[in-house]
Amino acid sequence: MRRPWHLLLGVAFGLASAFSCFLAGIYFQHSHATRQLQQLIQQDVYAYYISPKIFAVFSFFSVANETSNNMQRIMKYGFPGLDDVRLYSDFVLSYDRRNRVAHWVCEHLQLANLQGARGVGRAGATYRPDLSVPSNFRSTLADYKHSGFDRGHLAAAGNHREQQVHCNETFLLTNIAPQVGQGFNSGAWNKLEIYVRELTQNFGSVYVCTGPLFKPRAQGNRKWSVEYQMIGSSMVAVPTHFFKVIMVESRLPLGKPYMEAYVLPNAPIPDQSTLRDFLCDIREIEHFAGLHFFQGIRRSAIFGSNYPSESQVFRDFA
Ligand SMILES: *[C@@H]1O[C@H](CO)[C@@H](O)[C@H](O)[C@H]1NC(C)=O
Ligand SMILES: *[C@@H]1O[C@H](CO)[C@@H](O)[C@H](O)[C@H]1NC(C)=O
Questions:
Q1: Range in 26-30, 47-51, 94-98, 164-168 the model is least confident about
Q2: 6, 103, 108, 153: which one is catalytic?
Q3: Active-site positions, per UniProt (predicted)?
Q4: 89 lines ligand 1 (CB under 6 A)
Q5: Other CB atoms closer than 10 Å to residue 300's CB: what's the count?
Q6: Which pTM value belongs to this model?
Q7: Number of domains in the chain
Q8: For a disulfide at 156, which of 172, 193, 216, 241, Cβ 3.0-4.6 Å?
Q9: Which of the listed residues 168, 169, 172, 173 should we mutate to test ligand 2's pocket, taking the one with most ligand atoms within 8 A of CB?
Q10: Residue 103: which domain range?
């Protein structure tokens, strides 16, 4: 039987040249494509989910851009929600246009974020409206003035001391919410922020997600109502509560992360109460906020903590 060797050769040659064209195509197209991909990720957070795989392919030729790396680092365990997601230089935020406060703010804290450089700090920063929010949905300095409420940070200024621009961005009003000053912002909430920094000092890598809650009150007969104030002519909503969901990464390779959450009422909290009094089931926060935290990890892999007993953590830090 005669072999159609010329046919085989033709096919092989065709495949080889197609493959080399493909490689050349990747080589010449990659910078253009990565740029497009980065734009896509900024515009469409769904693209984030597939981006690591694609970047892994492109990284053969080029190093991925710092901005996209930041988003991937901070949001490594997933987005709690996808409403109006905004990437800042050291935190990621989802903005609630109706309430003029964030839905959530996510941070990834490492020692470098806290230690900071010389002269970097809140002294060099001022509160200012975020002009990237359309003006009819934006909160302003005038809204907070004489309102009786503090301009409370969601991502704490003290967590972002590596560069002045990081610290400055925590003063944008998108990262600010009306908080009771005495006994809350300068009391228990401040203690919680310090606790998060202590966790970072001790464990090196902490993910924290912070946001407001508008909790309903029972009216009887299985009915509920939500009551909250609004301030200023933009009507910035005053949250009834604030939450922090904290995930501590293990220092051990393949070690399980440890996760805990707090809900504090936006009200004066007596000095003698401890953080432990405000521990809260993460599912309860999810229920009231309509968010889902760290969905990149199975819950069963989180609640089994690294520590011999939960109380050990509280003994050390609370
Ligand atoms: C990284 O990508 C973003 C979005 O495409 C762009 O705005 C930024 O300038 C890029 N940064 C660098 C250092 O290339
Ligand atoms: C930080 O904000 C201050 C005051 O608004 C400003 O003078 C300074 O230039 C800003 N620094 C950076 C690095 O953005």
A1: 26-30
A2: 153
A3: 153
A4: no
A5: 8
A6: 0.77
A7: 2
A8: 193
A9: 168
A10: 75-316
